[in-house]
Amino acid sequence: MNNNIVKIFDTTLRDGEQSPGASMNMEEKIQIAIQLQKLNVDIIEAGFAAASPGDFEAIENISKVIETSTVCSLARALGRDIKAAGDAIAFAKHKRIHTFIATSPIHMQYKLQMAPEQVIKKAVEAVSYAKTFTDDVEFSCEDAGRSELPFLKEILDAVIEAGATTLNIPDTVGYRMPEEMGALIKELHAFVKNRAILSVHCHNDLGLAVANSLACVQNGARQIECTINGLGERAGNAAMEEIVMTLKTRHDFFNGLDTNINTKEIYPASRLVANITGIVPQPNKAIVGKNAFAHESGIHQDGVLKHQETYEIMKAEDIGLTNANTIVLGKLSGRHAFKDKIQSLGYQLSEEELNQSFERFKLLADKKKEIFDDDLRAIITDEIVKIPQLYTLKNLQINDCMNGMPSAAVCIEYKEMQTTDAGIGNGTMDAIFKTIDRISMIKGELKDYKVTAVTKGKDALAKVTVKVTFDEALPSFTGHGLSIDTMVASAKAYISALNAYSFQKESMHKRDRGGI
């Protein structure tokens, strides 16, 4: 291994998905995995195979399409978890199993209820079993940030002997300061030497995940676990884009350390993840926030126009953000111009996806004076990640009477048959959702609703994201809807969640009958 290269272990599809509201369906996960490969991420942690049949299936399908990056599955130090992980990554060209067990006194006593020697035995058994599936095995000491150093050395020594090739030291609860994490890695690096690669996984509870990760790199860590846009549990993880661009921009400070990341794919990756999860980085977010390269102050504008480096330490083009919009799309634009533009945004569509996206663009262009890049991203993302459309919204008419009862008339197509019904509700959306329930004969309970404007202006596209429970035995399903009309977007989002639920139920029935 080149000791000047820091490996990027991206866990957007595993830890990132654990961020509240960030759940993704399989097609969405595959699209993100493909983008991570474009980024040239070293390792993609595609999920937690034992967590659910859906997670297993997503990891398996990602393993089939990824050619260059290593595909990894997380597994507890349990035989059934490790077998699920090994089976899920079986098709991967480059595969890794990432197994873990808690090592802090508080976790061992209260969570595991195990003695330290039992924990070491479990860890060794887990690594040894994982080695039967792949030579590339990573071991994590959960809550290493609050673990005792002598015990960390003891368990790391044991798992190295068992065959672990990467050792991950997580600050699981984001408790440590950069100086503390740096000192810990320095001590462990001197102990481990060249027997394994040291990795870190820092959480952002105190806003120090990136700083802690970089302090560890300075002291010998050569793998960083991170996520796109810093998604993750609680306050999130170290943000991949911040780590990569810090190492690139301050190459001098980090003594020539670098990553394998294709930085021009950073912005497209950030936007894809934001569109799919509905979690958009705050405007002042470093690197990928919409204001990261914006200048409003007259003094700043004057300086940048005279010489870019007066107020910019990196180039927007370096992360794939270009202001050179040479093609302005509108209702008179042709298919060739549309195709050229979406390719410049980083999308490769099939002919069918291209045709469908172009039709939706033309409809939008008839209603909007100006089409923005984010409009196109929203249309394309909505088109390429959608699951099979069992139910399709054909028409919607609402009556939001100020002094009367709000009502909605809805027409839905199911199995080539159209059904129209109308209903009243406590509000316009309630009337729409109740009518859809009656037509489909499937009752849903709305758990979360979010609407955002894709771009600026009165005619901006509305992107609606909902979470709906249709069956208490199953998790909530996420749906997305896109339209200039917020009520239409809401109806589409609710039907999208209904399709996700219906598709999963249909798949479960097929499995029960031995169909798949």
Task: Explain what this protein looks like in three dimensions.
By secondary structure, the protein is α/β, with parallel strands linked by helices. It folds into three domains: 7-277, Alpha-Beta Barrel (TIM Barrel); 335-384, no CATH class; 391-512, Double Stranded RNA Binding Domain. It has 16 helices and 14 strands. The protein has helices at residues 26-39, 53-65, 79-88, 105-112, 116-130, 149-162, 178-192, 209-218, 240-249, 266-277, 298-306, 335-344, 351-367, 373-384, 428-440, 486-512, and strands at residues 7-10, 43-47, 70-76, 95-102, 137-142, 166-171, 197-202, 223-226, 391-399, 407-414, 417-424, 445-453, 462-469, 477-483. An eight-stranded parallel barrel has the order 1-2-3-4-5-6-7-8, surrounded by eight helices. The protein is globular and about 70 Å long. The model has no long low-confidence stretch (mean pLDDT 89).
Q: Topology, please?
A:
Elements (H helix, E strand, L loop, with lengths): L6 E4 L15 H14 L3 E5 L5 H13 L4 E7 L2 H10 L6 E8 L2 H8 L3 H15 L6 E6 L6 H14 L3 E6 L6 H15 L4 E6 L6 H10 L4 E4 L13 H10 L16 H12 L20 H9 L28 H10 L6 H17 L5 H12 L6 E9 L7 E8 L2 E8 L3 H13 L4 E9 L8 E8 L7 E7 L2 H27 L4
Parallel strand pairs: 1-2, 1-8, 2-3, 3-4, 4-5, 5-6, 6-7, 7-8
Antiparallel strand pairs: 9-10, 10-11, 12-13, 13-14
Number of structurally distinct domains: 3
Order of H and E elements: EHEHEHEHHEHEHEHEHHHHHHEEEHEEEH
Q: What's the CATH first level of the largest domain?
A: Alpha Beta
**CATH T-level fold name of the largest domain:** TIM Barrel
The general outline is globular
Radius of gyration of CA atoms, rounded to a whole number: 25 Å
Low-confidence stretches: none
Task: Please identify, by name, the CATH architecture of the largest domain.
Answer: Alpha-Beta Barrel
* Beta-strand residue fraction: 15-25%
Strand order of the largest sheet: 1-2-3-4-5-6-7-8
| Biggest sheet details | 8 strands, parallel, barrel
Which structural class best describes the helix and strand composition? Answer: alpha/beta
Helix content: 40-55%
Q: How many alpha or pi helices?
A: 16
CATH homologous superfamily assignment of the largest domain: Aldolase class I
Mean pLDDT: 89
Please report the total strand number as a whole number: 14
